[in-house]
Amino acid sequence: MGLREAINKQKPATKAGVVACLFAVAGFALWTSLSSGKPHNAMDAYYTTDDGQTTFVDDFFRPYPFDHDGKPAYRVYMYQTSKGKKFVGFIERYTDSGLKALEPLLSQNISREALRTAIQGVRDKYSQVKKPNDPTAKWYAANTKGAENVEKPAPPDGPDDNCILVFP
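Request: output the structure for the sequence above.
Response:
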């Protein structure tokens, strides 16, 4: 018996169920292929001037730290728990060398996606991260063991394996 004959022998409800499953799988495949885990169209990011106690939104491509109302503003990586609670995961800054390396990139007339890719190289080489809400916390250079530990989300309400990075 061929495939067509096997399908024709099935009840309409079975056929409808199979079609629905195929659409669900196709939709999931499309969704995951378009969601690479990074915000391709992000135009804004979270920042803080008080070590993560409060945050504000500004341009995603702003070099940081920058002056905000007389205080240095640092980039904040905001996460959300599986229960919907947002929290500051870690804080990031560029070194002086990183800020200098960013200047020519930011002055180029290139697409935001190309700029994002170019900036990532600077971030990998010239950024530092630290835990929030502790003004005495140590800053760790990007791509070091210390930075890996800092960048692991630590929800305030305890462990949650389903935390996601969120953008404004």
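The chain is about 35% helix and 25% strand.
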